[in-house]
Amino acid sequence: MMKEINLNIGGLTPFSTIDFPNHLATIVYTQGCNFRCPYCHNLPLVDCLEIPISYEKIYEFLQARKRIIDGVVITGGEPTLQKELPAFCAWLRNMGFAVKLDTNGTKPLMLKLLIEKHLVDYIAMDIKAPWDKYQIVTHTSFPIELIQQSVSLLKETGFPCEFRTTVHSGLLTFRDLEKIVHIVGQNHLLCLQVARPTPFYKEKNEYTKENLEGFIKKFPKYKLEVR
C-alpha cells in the first residue's frame, strides 16, 4: 500500500451499474462543495457532517473487489476542491481501475491537469443553469467564466464526457433548458435529471420524465437523454 492520501471521503456505494458507462463501479463520495443547490441530496457531504472514511478502509475495500469491479466514480460534494485528487486518481489507475469524475466545473485548471496527465477516463460535468441564473440555482456568487472554461476545455479536447442538468420547475423553465441545450451543442451528450424531493427542499416539481422526453424531441440533432 502506498503512502496515505489525504482525501476527505465521506461515503461509499459498493456497486453501481448505471453511474459509469460500460463499467461496474464503486462510487466514492468526497466531502465539501462550493455550491449550495437546494435540491442536493448530499448535504451532509457538502457541509462535512459525516466522519471521513479512513484511507485504509478504502484501500482494503477496493483491494478485496478488484476482480469484481473495474471502475471507480469519484463524486461529492465537489471532488476538484481536494488538492490530493490527482494522487488519488493515479493510485486508482495504478490498481487497474478506470476512473470517472463527477464535477461542477468550477476548477478548470484541475480538470486540465487530470486530462493532460491521463488520470481520469470519463468526466460528467454539471451545468446547473443558463449562465444568467447560476447564482439563483447554486445559492452562491461564483465567477461564471471558470465554469465556461471547463465547458470549453471538455469540448475542445474531445475528452470522453457528458454534461448533466438537474431540473426543478421552481428553478428552471423550459426556456432555460433550451439555453442549456445550446450551451452544450450538438456534439456532446446532455442528460436531464428530474430533481427529487429531499428533507430540505420539498417544493413540488412539475417536471416528469415524460414531459422532459417530450421536450427533447424538439431537438432531433442534439444528443439528449432523460434519466
From TrEMBL:
Protein name: Anaerobic ribonucleoside-triphosphate reductase activating protein
SUPFAM superfamilies the record matches: Radical SAM enzymes (SSF102114)
Single GO molecular function: iron-sulfur cluster binding
Entry keyword set: Iron, Iron-sulfur, Metal-binding, S-adenosyl-L-methionine
NCBIfam families according to UniProt: NrdG2
InterPro entries, sorted: Aldolase_TIM, NrdG2, Radical_SAM_PqqE_MftC-like, rSAM, rSAM_sf
Residues annotated as domain Radical SAM core: 19-227
Coiled coil as UniProt keyword: no
Source species, domain of life: Bacteria
Keyword Cell membrane: no
Cofactor(s) demanded: [4Fe-4S] cluster
Organism whose genome encodes this protein: Desulfofervidus auxilii
